[in-house]
Amino acid sequence: MLAPGFADPVHDAQGTFRAVMDALARPGLPRRLEAGLEPPAPLTPELAAIALALTDADTPVWLDAGLAAAPEVAAYLRFHTGAPLTDDPARAAFALIRDPARCPPFVRFAPGTPAYPDTSTTLVLALDTITAGEGLRLTGPGIDGTTRIALAPLPERFVGQLAENRAGFPLGIDLILTAPGRVAGLPRSTAVTES
Amino acid sequence: MSATAMIEPSRSEAGYNFAYLDEGTKRMIRRAILKAIAVPGYQVPFASREMPMPYGWGTGGVQVTAAVLGRADVLKVIDQGADDTTNAVSIRRFFARTSGVATTTRTTEATIIQTRHRIPETPLREGQVLVYQVPIPEPLRFLEPRETETRQLHALREYGAMHVKLYEDISRHGHIATTYAYPVEVAGRYVMDPSPTPKFDNPKMDDCPALQLFGAGRERRIYAVPPYTSVRSLDFEDHPFRVQQFDQPCALCGAEGVYLDEMLLDDAGRRMFVCSDTDHCEGRRADGHVGTGDAV
């Protein structure tokens, strides 16, 4: 049987959005994300909550290999969001990535265009841990001076890829990072360096 | 329904979705807000809806507020700094009726502040969201009427025309005569219209702990300044940016260094200069500050 979506669609979607908004507005400062969902594996409750809150028929969604291999995941997302699934990362408005270590290179996703940099892909990654106050060093809009955040696991050459992404500003992808019960944001405006 | 009942929390109008907008519209606006935060100062197009109020009454700000608002929020709405003018009262009642959220006039108690053309005098704090109502979001619009061209100018970061405009102010008036909607550069990249706030408020936008969101309903644009982001008013080395100065304090509360409104008192033209921010003025008077009460 299909797993249910939000118990309270209006307020659960608002709460999820607000956590994501706050996370992107303050990069490196993780927020609580109580999804209350039990989606089919390997989709995590946090990935599912963000998909249900933000995607619909207007937003092509790309699934990574692990998620795409599970037909229940596609059925769950199609039923609850109506979002079309795409095989082409460059056409995706959102990409759901269950296995960050095997995330395709960021350049394969849409960076937007110079006149419309908002037509880029937002990557939503399921990590195991997000720890504030240690690890990578972040500066940029939304950050009072500098802040630090430790993330695991990470895509290959993460900091190097982010530096290339930042160099293309205002083009580029934005990252929404999730871990059990938490969400953090790394918008394209953030400069990330190894500590 | 009486006026008192309307501002009570959790007494929302039956038949409307929470905060009036349907969920699909909220999702679309929410996605635009996330992009706006990721690219500070860039104008994200969005599918602005018809609202039950005319364009020019804050339909952009209302849509942004509706998309952000949650049950736990406390909403404040100001119009030119005042909580008690028509635009502020009607928008505050609109959300009280359609969402049932608590409303306030106190800047310190609010989690979301929707504003028309002012930034509160009380410094904003982390976690607050300031939502601006914007009539013309494009700072270059009066220099270049074509949207296709202004998009290119932003893409190329070609803001020479704006500096020429400010220079022409100097050559004509001896100083930069732009006093409101004074253009700013956000995070060292995009030039942005701060909405028709007096330039007096521009310094408050810089490195502000609160999130600033801008909604233009008729022009269908949303943009944002994240917290702790540099907002620099455009100027020249030999003509640095300066804010308005007032040569007298508020006549009611005696505050200095705040933005004052000129109030006409009678047909003889007697005037009084008082705080534009009514909450700030009331708070000071409650604390025992008194102005001269003098008309000029």
From TrEMBL, chain A:
Keyword Transferase among UniProt keywords: yes
GO biological process, alphabetically ordered: organic phosphonate metabolic process
Enzyme class: transferase
Enzyme Commission code: 2.7.8.37
Keyword Transferase: yes
Any GO molecular function: alpha-D-ribose 1-methylphosphonate 5-triphosphate synthase activity
Entry keywords, A to Z: Transferase
UniProt-listed InterPro entries: PhnH-like_sp (IPR038058), Phosphonate_metab_PhnH (IPR008772)
Highest taxon above the source species: Bacteria
SUPFAM superfamilies: PhnH-like
Record-linked NCBIfam families: PhnH_redo (TIGR03292)
Protein's UniProt name: Alpha-D-ribose 1-methylphosphonate 5-triphosphate synthase subunit PhnH
Organism of derivation: Methylobacterium brachiatum
Automatic annotation (TrEMBL), chain B:
Domain of life: Bacteria
Residue ranges of coiled coil: none
Matching InterPro entries: PhnJ
The enzyme's E.C. designation: 4.7.1.1
GO MF terms held by the record: 4 iron, 4 sulfur cluster binding; alpha-D-ribose 1-methylphosphonate 5-phosphate C-P-lyase activity; metal ion binding
Catalysed reaction, written as an equation: alpha-D-ribose 1-methylphosphonate 5-phosphate + AH2 + S-adenosyl-L-methionine = alpha-D-ribose 1,2-cyclic phosphate 5-phosphate + methane + 5'-deoxyadenosine + L-methionine + A + H(+)
Function: Catalyzes the breakage of the C-P bond in alpha-D-ribose 1-methylphosphonate 5-phosphate (PRPn) forming alpha-D-ribose.
Record-stated family: Belongs to the PhnJ family.
Protein name: Alpha-D-ribose 1-methylphosphonate 5-phosphate C-P lyase
